[in-house]
Amino acid sequence: MRDTDNPRLLALTSSALLLPAYTPVANADAPPEVAEAGIRYSKYQEDDLSRNKVILGSNERYDIDIYQAHLLTPIADDWSFALDVQREHMSGASPWFVGETADGGAAVFMSGASISDTRTYVGTTTRYYMPRGNAGLQLGYSDEDDYRSKSIGLDGAWNNSDNSRTWSGAVSYADDDISPTQGTIPTNVEDEQKDTASAWFGMTQILSQTALVRLGLSYSVSNGYLSDPYKLLDQRPDRRSRTTASASWRKFLIAPDAALHIDYRYYSDNWDIDSHTLRGEWHQTLGRFSLVPYVRYYSQSEADFFSVIADPAQRYFSDDYRLSSFGAVTLGARLVASMNNWRVTVAGERYRSDNSWSLYGGEEAPALVDFWRATLALDYRFE
Amino acid sequence: MPFRTEHRFKAMGGPCTVFIDSHTPLHTSVLLGLEAEIGRLEQKYSRYRTDSLLSTINAAAGQPAPIAIDPETAGLCAYLDQLYQQSRGRFDATSGILRRAWDFRSGTVPAASAVEALLPLIDWPSVEWDDHGIRLPRPGMELDLGGLVKEYAVDCGIRYLAEQGVQHALLDMAGDLAALGPQGDGLPWSVAITHPRSPGSSCATLPMTNLRLASSGDYERCMIIDGVRYSHHLNPTTGLPVRGLIAASVQGEQCMVAGSVATVAMLAPDRESALTWLRESGLPWCAVDSELQVHGPLGTPDTRASAGK
Question: The complex's ipTM?
Answer without folding.
Answer: 0.84
